[in-house]
Fold each of these.
Amino acid sequence: MARKVVIVGAGVVGLGCASYLQRMGAEVTMIDRVAPGMSTSYGNAGGIATTMVLPLAMPGLFKKYVNYYLDPEGPVSLRWSHMPAMLPFLWQFLRNCRPERVKHCTEALAAFMPPAYEAWKPLFADAKLEHLVGGGGGLWIYADDAALQKDWPFWQGRRDSGLAFHALNEDELRQMEPAVGRDWKAGVLEEDWHWVRNPYKISAGLAKVVGERGGTILEENVLDFDKGPDGKLRAVITDKGRHDCDDVLICAGAWSDKLAKKLGSKVPMESQRGYHVMLPNAGVETRHLIAVGSAKIAINTMDEGVRIVGASAFPGIDAPPDWRQAKMVLNWGKRVLPDLNTEGMTEWFGERPLTPDSLPVLGRSPHFKNAYYAFGHSHMGLTTGAVTGKLMAQQIMGQTPDIDLSPFRIDRAYS
Ligand SMILES: Cc1cc2nc3c(=O)[nH]c(=O)nc-3n(C[C@H](O)[C@H](O)[C@H](O)COP(=O)(O)OP(=O)(O)OC[C@H]3O[C@@H](n4cnc5c(N)ncnc54)[C@H](O)[C@@H]3O)c2cc1C
């Protein structure tokens, strides 16, 4: 009989896992309180950015973040009443700025991320989603050459990891992206990036195939687990009933720490809230996924208009949205694309699941033999949804995962 795996969370990570588990012969049930792909996976920038192997915590980060915070147009915002709850995370995050930790995390990400696009290809083909996927690369833009030079340690880190990129002068940048304003005079092209034209449709398309292949997708709220005396989970308990299982896989994005806690594992995690504005009548188009490192925004032309994403807000996951952040994202977008038309604009926010070491949590629970985790993909859940699915399916189905999962285990030292 097929192994019955219950997956909690039907975002892009859960869907990547369900797709690969089905390919390896498992019977899957996905449980989410909202429809597939309607949470954080809905509104991201659409980048499949396989070269993002440097962790967020780097030497010099503290000073950089203080400057971002003090700048009224800066991307970082905090809610002071949330600070006491956030301090343990912050402490561990800062400890990851030490060079030996940066090296450790970069090595782990350099094994995990580069195969990420290859892992997507069979899933995109099966779900007939290839028309929503583009190539041509990611383009980082800078005010001038001096600004690019200031960012050079970031690029050197990429180079040290064996990743290729090309620095561009003003003319080259202009030819590649005619819509970008004259205030931007230097750039870097990362040819290996791909992007999708609609992240929600990617999730919805994957969910359709999961259903067609016999998977069950339920809209229920997971409350707890039925724990057997043999160190195994017997069932997942929701607001609507119980679902028996051979294995449980938690892919609940920024809410996963709450469920892990019920299974005896404490994970230092924060939601790094981001916003997007969607411009259906933008009147301009971009040819690459454009990233502005200094403002932490990205711009992508989607099938329904131009999307600008950004903001790095830490208000606590249950705090109401602060739409001034979306306005800030829009203002930066206008600086990049001066001819942008904002008629019909819509706004959105989502919760990036952030760990202090920028590594996702992947692998088996140390407390329950048949419980597994795949969450904490921060800025990169779309990029790595499929490779995560492949690795987790390999582990759950008793195969040797393609890479060593020990740096990602839930009971690791996070700093
Ligand atoms: C502004 C922004 C831009 C981004 N841009 C990019 C990008 O260009 N490229 C990239 O790779 N990544 C990007 N990301 C990150 C990416 O969107 C996330 O890493 C990814 O969506 C996480 O997927 P997930 O499946 O883990 O989480 P989610 O999509 O949040 O899915 C988790 C699901 O679990 C469900 N859930 C939680 N708790 C329960 C419960 N108790 N019971 C039932 N269901 C539950 C939730 O309802 C949710 O649907 C961006 C994120 C933001 C916010």
Note: DSSP finds twelve helices and 21 strands in the chain.
Amino acid sequence: MSGESLRQLEQKHETEKQKRAISFAAFISESALMELERRDMLTAAQFISVVGFNEDILTLKDERKGGRFFEVQIRNKKLRCITDKNSSDCAHVGFALALPEVRKVLSR
Ligand SMILES: [Zn+2]
């Protein structure tokens, strides 16, 4: 890690500490995890596309799974991937959460 990015992380940690008690070590590992998750999501997102959005069902196509369709249901402001055994944290739910149309439904 370069001195510059370490300095930035220390500053971020200072800001975060105002909001909640968190040690620098915990903060670092949390930041790294979030960064990893973000990268995973971006990689996955390249292979996922929207097929259709109908009422509370969003249909996605996942090229990583041979172009299989995945259905994400939005109910009571919660998302679950029906195709992934009602998972609420698979890549399809993550992808759906980033879509403006889904955000609109969630903010209603
Ligand atoms: Zn899924």
Note: The radius of gyration is 18 Å.
